[in-house]
Fold this protein.
Amino acid sequence: MTKPVIGFIGLGLMGGNMVENLQKRGFELVIMDLNKDAVATVVARGGATEASSPKELAAASDIVMLCLTTSAVVEKIVYGDDGILAGIKEGSVLIDFGTSIPASTRKIGADLAAKGAGMIDAPLGRTPAHAKDGLLNIMAAGDKETFDKVKPILDEQGENVFYLGALGAGHTTKLVNNFMGMTTVCAMSQAFAVADRAGVDRQQLYDIMSTGPSNSPFMGFCKNYAVDGVSDLGFSIANANKDLGYFLEMVKDLGTRAEIAEGTSHNLEAAVEAGMGNGNVPEIFDYFLKLQK
């Protein structure tokens, strides 16, 4: 069976490694990114060509994949004069691997459906290293027939591919997941900072907490930075701040409030304003350590 041609926009750490994995598995790719060095690296491996616009990329592809930073960027790529919507073929599928606002995802999906194309939202779990080996966690949602159509390709990229139902459920789940994860990191980082200011040894605090039910991989990441000075959770404060903002927007659309998330968002935003946005999330410990009343 002939492999589908894949268009891929977004060759950052995650997207670039996803593309490398697809190339290793023999897929023909059409690619785009503002980083021309990243484009050149992919083209040099063979089996990939660069498109001049999202419209051209979509017209040349059976499946279009996005690994972009924000909903605003996704909408610009989709709706621009030379955007995906202008070029996508009937029967093609758009897969958004980024973390986007569910309402935006559903809007794009409806507009694609009007042109006879499908959409899957499929945000990712795990790291760029997992992406290179096709071992991501993928939270996919959309029309079941469309999902079944692209699942063999998702299986090439993910060790665990979850089907979550109607379009937007993947992005909803990812935002809930990131709310829980980033709130946990903020709480644990602040615990280490308060302990330090109170004269409690941070290593001893970890030794005690890690023997109880609070122990988790997130505690390990927080301890690695707060105690050992090693920043090894590859997710930036700026990205966490963006995701919490999206979570709060989603919650507002649902007609409720998430006061814990509001607190997490406040702390992340303050750390970004303090110039710490490029640091990994456990580095918010430094913000809490210096925080004055």
